[in-house]
Amino acid sequence: MELKLLHHYTTITCKTLAIADDVSENIWRDTVPNLAFSGASFLADALLAVSALHLRSHTPHDQDLVRASHAYMAATLSEYGTSLSNGITETNAEALFLTASLIAFQSTASRIFTRDDSGDLKDRSDGYVLPLSWFHSFQGVKAVVASSWQWLRNSGIVIPIIEAQPALNLNLAEHENTFFGDLLVGLDEELAQSGEDESPGYLLTRQAYQHAVAVLNWAHKIPQTGAPLVFLATVSRRFIELLESRRPRALAILASYFALLKCLDSLWWLRGVARREVMGIVSLFDPDDEEWWPRLQWPLRIVLYEGDTIPSDVWGADWNDQHALLQQANRNGGFVTHIELLSKMFSAMQNTTSSALRDPLDVASHAEAVLQDRALQASANMMALSESLHVPQVD
């Protein structure tokens, strides 16, 4: 079984882990297995687990593959957790980053075997479960990056993978005139009515919504580059808390996010996800809700569209503009450049903030607040990546 899974990984699965990037595809195919079978057993187990899940997507009822996928991932999580507890070092940083990435893939792909979609808006129930594990696993990747950047920044393995991600180019200064601006309408009034405008967390809540919508607006313009996947790792811890509380605004934002994944439906680990998740989220709303039901119409229209290519007038943006928009964003530096800038700011704030902000997450949140107070584009871009330096607590 192990040889079968390894062969499948190196010949097929590895090609599905990189979106339109030959360099990172070669790394996943050649370099990662070499590193895995040179002593990083948790990485070896992770790639075998993902390979087994990929094969299972073709034969869902093959119990040998079901057991293999679960067993290899269980072994991965056990060894991975132990390695993190022992500390990230120069010698294990690359393997831990790659393992965290494969765990995120596994978490995402496992969802395709869940049948939450009733397919009927009239058949509403409380059975739908939000895929919060997606956020936790992708946030785990950024936690490893934040904790080991001093070594990863010089890695010939990790840097090409990070640079393959489209550079964030967010606009936090404008909200109402953006495509998803209606998701922020009434935010201040909502916070005032709930009394949150007088609470210490008011700013973080407001920023969590604004930042999430800014990422949606950015990814909406370049969806086929894999940009929508960045949302999972870059949203703040506060936004995830709002999702856990099932706040209507957070759920509506999440529905729009999953609709963006419709353009990546050809990937085996995202196949059917857009429709299933949007329909599930919509089932949590009352169709008579005059405030939120109209804001769910775009994600519904997208996931129910039957054609292979969604027209620009339905999508709301012209996909032919993606290349030009990417070039424009890359003029400000790639993903690595932005992480470098925020890493320096993050370190400085850890050294200068009060004892009340000694926790890494609180320091990063403070950095976020400082950056969001600036309306300039450069500040917006930096704030977006300060979220990439949040280190979630380990339960």
Shape, per Cα inertia axes = globular
Mean pLDDT: 82
Distance between the termini: 33 Å
Helicity level, as a percent range?
Answer: 55-70%
How many independent structural domains? 2
Poorly predicted tracts of residues = 116-125, 353-395
InterPro entries: Fun_TF, Zn2-C6_fungal_TF
Pfam families: Fungal_trans_2
Protein name: Putative c6 zinc finger protein
Keywords: Nucleus
Which descriptors apply to this entry?
395 residues, globular, Zn2-C6_fungal_TF, Fun_TF, nucleus, Putative c6 zinc finger protein
What does this structure look like?
With 395 residues, the chain is mainly α. It is 60% helix and 0% strand. It has 2 domains: 2-163, no CATH class; 181-327, no CATH class. The longest helix has 24 residues, at 63-86. The model is unreliable at 116-125 and 353-395 (pLDDT under 50).
